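ESCALATION

Customer reports they have been waiting on this structure for their group meeting. Please prioritize. Original submission:
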Amino acid sequence: MGKESTVLGKEGETIAVDHLIEKGYEILERNFRSQQGEIDIIAKENGFLVFVEVKMYSIGSYGTPLGAIRKPKKESIIHAARTYLLKNNIKDVNCRFDVLAIYRSWKGLSSFDLIKDAFHVG
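Update from on-call: job pushed to the front of the queue and completed.
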């Protein structure tokens, strides 16, 4: 990932946290890393432990949020989620994977597309 996209990604995660809090999510952790993956945001929402992948789009971007998460990316997110559950001794909890797309206009305004339960394990 280049420097510009890294900065854009970090900015997106900060915007995402604020948006998720507004939507009733309780943020537990940001940028959780395992050996084989990373989760942008881990939160609780309506009885679910939610692993959130953030995608930031600006003018000139193309594709869809779900299209940007191909099989290897899903596998790395799932691995990180399993590691988080194991590391924190979390059992018998409902989990899901959400994707939050943030679209930035040239005026700096943001719009959001929150896709709950975007993909599944297995």
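Sent to customer with the following note: The beta strands are 26-33, 38-45, 48-57, 94-104, 110-119.
Escalation resolved.
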